[in-house]
Specification:
Length: 522
């Protein structure tokens, strides 16, 4: 039999308010845990749509299991709710550190990690979902013990508080927790709030329900959980530095979290400098020159007074453009101001880009390329698309038919577009989908590859930096509205050498990728 109504230290109205406030806080914390797992999964594993789907679907399923299991706990709802909140605070608060530790100390960017990490991600999603799912049935018992009411009214009150709390948690994660604390400390802070809220509700309102032994057990558990979370928060900076060294090597010089992504610079000499964006190797001093010359040089054959670079905040594409005489204006459209600041001021990176941003012809526009193109009115002789690989989910819109349609609007008569389309040897379907999408936008195309790749520079959605599926080349597509102009541009030595090798891998009959039907997922 479920516990009957008892006298509380506050009025029934105040008691109901406090329970609903507890629901609000717990719901906010629960959603933060979900978003934290989604963000970490996208960062550590890649392909954010897939990882978000896995996390959210497993969590919703687990919440159903938790609700069913909570039926057995209703007879001692107060004690069980307090215990569940402590466990949820510990599991949810430490989930980010555990996942990051597994990533850092298990060869983070190899295929074994990618497989094992998904199991770990599912395990956390399942555990957190079960604990969250058990909250509402127990809270239903507690709120009914304050004042009996019809089930429909009680459910409406609980779910209203739950949904509003979820809204607050969903907004707090990107706008408050991440900017102020980062992912690791933000999760620990959320766990602490969760433990305090659960403990305060039980000890403040329902302590008379607990036996002396239960009170001491709950108090001990809460103190232990809060101590562990506090200790982790104190050590989190040292932990993050050690994990970063394990992932990137000991020569980490710069590590900053911008509004867009985590940016890490390693190495100090030109040949050893590496730039990582959200854990993916974006630039390697060992071979970036081959990549950027392969991307830029063919498109610069012909008139090139006005040049637009989409992405390329590191300044390296701009460096190659400025090597050509006759350039009067270079516009760089880059979303992440942090990358541009590093390219301007970091001694090694600015030396690598030949101090391109000091050139008065270079103008930086901090904007999303898709949105910027919709409003652009300037016409350019050359457009360089130096963007992350299309296999990374957030980049798919920048490789869509709609995006290339907007790009053609800013191409001057006889203008050329050069597109980085990802590694051709290991992802030929993705590469040729980019080429098919360009053709669907009304452009003539020439595909080519540049080999001799020494690093995992600019990989796609996975973390593979070695092994059989590691990228071994770069694939590019040169495009123009008219074939004669295109053939002149394609007469460069880079294209002549790389076009036959690319054609050997051609896949025909591929549909173009659009905003409503992206086709770049592996």
């Amino acid at each position: 039999m479920i516990e009957s109504t008892v006298r509380l230290p506050v009025s029934p109205r105040t008691g109901r308010f406090l329970v609903l406030a507890g629901v609000f806080v717990c719901a906010a914390c629960g959603l933060v845990y979900e978003l934290e797992l989604v963000a970490l999964a996208a960062y550590l594993i890649g392909d954010s749509v897939t990882q978000a789907s896995v996390v959210l679907s497993v969590m919703v399923f687990a919440m159903g299991i938790g609700s069913l299991l909570a039926k057995r706990l209703r007879h001692h709802a107060s004690a069980w709710f307090g215990l569940l909140e402590s466990v949820l605070a510990l599991v949810g608060g430490c989930s980010a550190m555990v996942l990051y530790a597994a990533f850092a100390w298990s060869g983070g960017r190899d295929e074994l990690w990618a497989g094992g990490s998904r199991y770990l991600l599912v395990a956390f999603s399942l555990a957190i979902g079960i604990l969250i799912g058990a909250e509402v049935p127990l809270l239903m018992v507690l709120i009914q013990r304050i004042r009996r009411q019809d089930a429909g009214g009680a459910v409406a009150d609980l779910f209203a508080a739950d949904y509003v709390g979820a809204l607050v948690g969903g907004l707090a994660f990107p706008f408050l927790l991440l900017p102020l604390f980062g992912q690791l400390t933000g999760a620990l802070f959320t766990g602490s709030v969760n433990a305090i809220a659960g403990g305060a509700l039980v000890f403040g309102l329902f302590r008379q329900d607990l036996s002396v032994r239960a009170r001491w057990v709950l108090l001990t558990v809460n103190v232990v959980v809060l101590s562990l979370l506090a200790s982790a928060a104190v050590l989190v900076d040292d932990f993050e530095r050690a994990a970063r060294r394990a992932v990137y090597g000991r020569d980490v010089r710069v590590a900053v979290q911008t509004d867009v992504q985590e940016v890490v610079l390693t190495g100090g000499r030109l040949g050893s400098l590496d730039l990582f964006l959200d854990g993916r190797l974006r630039i390697s001093g060992r071979d970036e020159a081959r990549y950027h010359r392969g991307l830029v040089a063919p498109a610069m054959r012909g008139r090139h007074a006005r040049v637009l670079i989409l992405g390329g905040g590191d300044g390296l594409a701009a460096r190659e453009v400025l090597r050509h005489p006759g350039v009067r204006r270079v516009d760089v459209v880059e979303l992440d101001t942090g990358v541009v600041d590093l390219a301007r001021h970091d001694p090694a990176l600015s030396e690598l880009n030949a101090h391109a941003y000091r050139d008065p012809r270079v103008r930086v526009v901090h904007a999303d390329a898709f949105r910027w193109l919709r409003l652009a009115r300037t016409r350019y002789d050359v457009v360089i698309s130096d963007l992350p690989d299309p296999g990374i989910t957030p980049s798919t819109k920048l490789y869509s038919q709609e995006f290339y349609g907007l790009t053609t609007r800013v191409l001057a008569d006889g203008g050329r577009l050069a597109v980085h389309a990802g590694p051709l040897a290991t992802r030929p379907r993705v590469f040729w989908t980019v080429e098919a999408t360009l053709r669907a936008a009304g452009l003539r195309t020439v595909a080519y590859r540049v080999g001799g790749r020494e690093s995992g520079f600019a990989p796609g959605p996975d973390r593979t930096a070695g092994g059989p599926t590691a990228p071994r080349d770069w694939g590019f597509v040169l495009a123009s509205r008219t074939r004669p102009v295109l053939r002149r541009a394609a007469g460069s030595a880079v294209v002549r050498a790389g076009e036959p090798a690319a054609e050997l891998t051609r896949q025909r009959g591929l549909a173009p990728s659009t905003l409503m039907h992206p086709r770049y997922a592996n």
